[in-house]
Amino acid sequence: MNADWITAELKSVADSMNALSEQAATILAIAEACTTALKAGRKVMFCGNGGSAADSQHLAAEFVGRYKMERKALASVALTVDTSILTAIGNDYGYDDVFRRQVEGIGQAGDVLIGLSTSGNSRNVLLAFQQARNMGITTVAFTGQGGGLMKEQADICLAVPAGVTNHIQEMHITSGHLICEITERAMYA
Questions:
Q1: Region 88-114: what's the mean pLDDT?
Q2: pLDDT tens, position by position, 57-74
Q3: pLDDT by residue (tens digit) across 33-59?
Q4: Which terminal CB of the chain, N or C, has fewer other CB atoms within 10 Å?
Q5: Can you tell me the mean pLDDT for 88-94?
Q6: H or E element: which one contains 140?
Q7: How far apart are the first and last CA of the chain?
Q8: With contact defined as beta carbons under 8 Å apart, do 128 and 111 qualify?
């Protein structure tokens, strides 16, 4: 590998980000769903596996802490962080239920559940979506190109225009940051 390889990789990332601009209306719709929930006293929940779990924690932290504005905390939680809950559910019910059981326990009608999956086919996220929809919770999918099975189950699907995991994750966090800023401004500007 050399500098030319790095340049080509960065160009590929830039091309993916440019293509993401075609999803501006979807990103805005997600921010509006989050704003509606938060203004109604509800919360935004996040879930995903691996890198998507890390992105879930990151985005929940932006809502609860702050993104760019000094403001009150916004109600948000990542369903990926409590090792006791995750291991208890995984042990007693199976890994497929680790997010579904949490949605059942803490979700309320009017909340938003954002599920991140680069494939769009993560079974534990799909089951959480089914639970959420049964409870009147808005479901939002962050996926890769095509959307996978999550596209069919989500109220809103952000299927980013990439098929390579790292590019999908880069677009997910960029989109998440945009959603945080739009929501923050709608709540407090």
A1: 98
A2: 999 999 999 999 999 999
A3: 999 999 999 999 999 999 999 999 999
A4: N
A5: 98
A6: strand 138-143
A7: 46
A8: no
The number of beta carbons lying within 10 Å of the beta carbon of residue 72 is 8
Contact 52, 118 (CB under 8 A): yes
To the question of pTM greater than 0.70 for the whole model, the response is yes
Q: Which domain holds residue 103?
A: 3-188
| N residues, the chain | 189
Kindly report the CATH number assigned to the domain that includes residue 145.
3.40.50.10490
Q: Which amino acid is at 58?
A: H
Q: H or E element: which one contains 188?
A: helix 165-188
133: tokens are 């929809």
Counting the structural domains of the chain, the total is 1
Long-range contacts of 21-27 (CB under 8 A, 24+ apart): 22/161, 23/158, 23/160, 23/161, 23/175, 26/156, 26/157, 26/158, 27/158, 27/175, 27/178, 27/179, 27/182
79 touches 47 (CB < 8 A): yes
